[in-house]
Every structure is written in C-alpha cells, then in structure tokens.
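User: Beta-lactamase class A. Structure?
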Amino acid sequence: MSPADIFEAAGVRGFLHARRLGSSSSVGVDPDEPVVLASVVKVPLAYEFARQVAAGLLDPADRVRASAADRLGGSGSAGFADDVSYSLRDAALLALSVSDNTAADLLFDRVGVANVRSLLSELGLTRTSVIGAPRDLLRTIMDDTAAGVPLRALDPLRTSATTPREMTSLLAAMWRDPGPGAQVLAWMSAQVSWHRLTAGFPPEVAVAAKTGTMPGIRNEIGVVTYPDGGAYAVAVFTAGGAETLRRPDIDRAIGDAARAAVEELRS
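Assistant: Predicted structure:
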C-alpha cells in the first residue's frame, strides 16, 4: 500500500515527507501543507540548546528546578509530586525521551523562544512558527476552553506549526552537523515511544525520533538508518480520528506510511 492508502485506511488525513539524506531524492503526501507541531517543537528547542552549548553560551551542567508552579501535569517531571532539580542537558534528554513538558519549559526559559525562532529562520524554515513554550500552548487551551471557542492549539494557522518538508529539512541539517545535531539525534534515539515510526521498521533499522500528540493530532519525525548506511529523514503528521489519545491503529499507520515511503526511496 502507498502512504496515502495507509492514511485512508486508518481514517485520517495524513501529511508526509521523506528524503534520502545526502541526496535530493524525496517522496511526499501533501508535504507542504501546514500542520500542528505539538511536541515536535522540542526538536528545534534541543538543537538550539546544543548549539548554544557548543558556542559556550550555556553550561550544560547548570541546574534548573521544577517547582510546583512549573509542573502542569504529564510525563516525566511534569507529573512529579515533589520538586526536583536537574541539569540543562538532562532537561533536554527528558524533553526528547519522555516528552517532559516541564523540562521543555525550563529549557525554553534558558535558551529563549526568540533564539529558537532565529534558528528556524537561519535554516530557511520560513513556514515553521513557534508561539512559545509548552506552558504557553496550554494557556491558549485553557483560555479557549473557558471561552467555549475552537482551540487555537489544534489549528496550524493559529498555533506552533510547520510542514512535513520543513521538518525533514531540519532533520537533514542536524544529520549533517557532527556536533550539536548529532547530540540531538542521540537524545532522540533515547525516546521511549516505539509505537509510531519505530514500529514500522524491522529491529535492525535504527530510529531516532520525536512524537507529538494532541486530541485528534498524532505526529512523529525522525531519522531512519539502515544497516547498509542508508539514512532517511521522515516526517509524518496526521489529523482526524477519535480525539482519545490512544489510537494504536493510527499510531501503526504512521509507522507503516513511513516505511512505505522509505522503501519507495530505497527502490
């Protein structure tokens, strides 16, 4: 089945872009349509952090403290019952490995939202926007819910957004960068979620990826590396399906669509 057929069978609208790294070969399904970033925003955040560390602007061992006011619920320290402190580099690891929103908030405080936007501009990702840290996104959800209006957080024209093609461009830039880029891909390799991109590939294929999830929205971007050295940047975004966060059929469709796109490039 083609990626488009896989999305249709899962009952979602899918947006995909895959490129063979080191070449101009690529395939896509509506790759230039705007899509909601959700927690995929943590990838450019971590990349800008790693770049600032390499430039001597930040000490990765500096510590931050997740207090009650910072913990808004979720995985990692975001859901802790008690205060905890950790280094900036561990905040980056938490943000990418378990999608810890509090760790990402604290890292945004040090890195600066404006600097993440500058990174995107430097890379030519003109259609990728970042409205702020995860806490800022949550505030829009709370405000819109209280007002009884459609959630801005689910509208790519009114929230942090991107396109699949721009996300594979970001991954390609990181893949070419043996310093900060390689560090971010190593953190992404530690992601505990294996049910989307990783599920679509055999165990001998290495996957470094980051998910993004909101009601009715399921995303993942990553770099897939085969034993023969072939490496591929893949970005898959879906919209639709039940708003419940647990939809293993859609999760699997993301992996299957990614595999179909990569196999098309390999052939």
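The chain has one domain: 3-266. The beta strands are 13-20, 26-29, 35-36, 63-66, 84-87, 161-162, 206-214, 217-225, 231-239.
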